[in-house]
Design brief:
Low-confidence stretches: 204-214
Strand content: 15-25%
Mean pLDDT: 88
Order of helices and strands: EEEHEHEEEEHEEEH
Number of helices: 4
Number of domains: 2
Number of strands: 11
Helix content: 10-25%
CATH superfamily of the largest domain: Alpha-L RNA-binding motif
Shape: globular
Structural class: alpha+beta
Oligomer: single chain
Amino acid sequence: MAKSRRYLLFYKPYGVLCQFEDRSESPRPTLKGYIDVPRVYPVGRLDRDSEGLLLLTDNGTLQNRLLEPRYRKPKTYWVQVEGVPDEAALEALRQGVTIRDYRTRPADVRRLDREPDLPPRDPPIRFRKNVPTTWIELVITEGRNRQVRRMTAAVGFPTLRLVRVAIANLTIDALEPGQWRDLTDAERDGLHRLCGFTASSPAAPRRSRSRRRR
């Protein structure tokens, strides 16, 4: 009988490491404090000071494919930046900016008309009374270290808060910080299609029950 695979969506809170163990002298919060499913691992990562959607699985084949450059899927972020980016700054992000020794790929970028409906961050960001802030939506297909923060800084608008709200066809809807759930059958099948798997592929899992935990 084929092994049943697990696919989890987790809303990572601010300050939580994208790993299950922290061996530092002053241990910090990790995934272990929220997820009790054995042998699942994050697909990619989110920085400790970033929030939002994280995909975890015990399917190594799918995990590797999602991380391969040719199969990388779009990731959507809502980004609160310091200041009010003009169209020139947004267009620079769309075309790609130079960060250290590489140039980012073209991105989809738009300014949000209003502050998105997100849970308050704990702790809240530090506001400067005389400096306005702006929320933008940024969609990229890369995943370099601290890339979004470095992109906005490169065009003169430092990131204050960063929340990943979607990975390909998967969204953070209906999750609160610290909650996780299994993918639905439709979400799982859509993810397989995006990665080029067929229904008969050995990577395809059997059905699993949905579960959520705070």
